[in-house]
Specification:
single chain; about 290 residues; mainly alpha; Tetracycline Repressor, domain 2; Four Helix Bundle (Hemerythrin (Met), subunit A); 2 domains; 14 helices
Length: about 290
């Protein structure tokens, strides 16, 4: 059964994942006892801003989608381009309003991310590595947002993200950002044929698939270097270490797959392994926080 056009436009599963990232980071930052009302506002705000970004993305991609994805809401005629642009703008505003009770640092991050999402959709996604780095930043900052919520509610200050219980959130945000850039590069290798047809300037198309694979592995390796830190710093115990080991193995398997071959099928496998690794990584942080 097909979703209504407005729901299809905002990609509700992506919005849910954005909200869940905030929820996870709040649970981690509070050791499993989050302030539920503030968390609900933060969850909703992240989901709504993500929805706004998805709407703006479809508006900016409407001409490409008319060729490659004519079933999307705008090219199919189910929604008008100006209507979608207004929806995106209004969703950004609604998300920022939801954040007002959470304090100025959260408001500033929401405004910055809304602007970055719009710029990414309009231009930056078409410029190779810059686009990959922007996606990594956006994913990492979603986790960081949960830490900012806790720092404001508990009035411990933003600098506490580097010390005490909140430091695990900072590590998670960094790992998520780095590994996301690696996975984005791998996905670009997978999509080289289609991207070439529509004239995108992705990193593998400009520098070659092998160079892109090497850079992806470097970003993944940087994320893996950080993975033992919550245990080494005493934030989490053996449960975290056991689960994060599974994540590390999955990332290593992804790196081996893309290093051996840069064909589309191998890149697809590596991308899937990265997704599995990210899931286990998030689970490790959650288990470490509540155990």
């Amino acid at each position: 059964m097909r979703l209504p056009a407005a729901l299809e436009l905002v990609r509700p599963h992506n919005c849910l994942l954005a909200g869940l990232a905030v929820l996870v980071s709040v649970i981690i930052a509070t050791g499993g006892s989050p302030p539920w009302l503030a968390t609900a506002f933060a969850f909703a705000a992240a989901a709504v801003i993500c929805a706004g970004g998805n709407a703006i993305n479809d508006y900016c991609d409407r001409r490409i989608d008319a060729i490659n994805r004519p079933e999307r809401p705008i090219p199919s005629g189910r929604l008008g381009a100006r209507q979608v642009l207004a929806m995106g703008r209004n969703l950004f505003i609604a998300g920022i309003i939801l954040i007002i009770p959470l304090g100025m640092p959260c408001i500033v991050l929401a405004i910055v991310n809304s602007v970055v999402l719009a710029l990414y959709a309009a231009e930056l996604k078409r410029h190779g590595l810059i686009g990959n780095l922007i996606v990594g930043y956006l994913v990492g900052s979603t986790f960081l947002f949960g830490g900012l919520v806790v720092s404001e509610i508990e009035r411990v200050g933003v600098l506490s993200l580097a010390v005490g219980e909140l430091r695990a959130v900072g590590i998670l945000a960094a790992m998520a950002a780095l590994s996301t850039v690696g996975r984005e590069l791998i996905k670009d290798i997978e999509d080289m044929r289609g991207d070439r047809k529509i004239g995108l300037k992705t990193f593998p198309l400009h520098h070659g698939a092998r160079a892109a694979a090497s850079l992806a592995i470097a970003f993944i390796a940087a994320a893996l270097i950080l993975s033992p830190m919550p245990y080494a710093l005493g934030s989490f115990g053996a449960v975290y270490l056991a689960i994060v080991a599974v994540s590390v193995l999955a990332f290593i398997a992804a790196s081996v797959a893309i290093a051996r071959s840069q064909k589309s099928r191998s890149a697809g496998l590596a991308s899937l392994l990265c997704k599995v690794a990210m899931g286990f990584g998030m689970l490790a942080f959650l288990a470490g926080a509540v155990s």
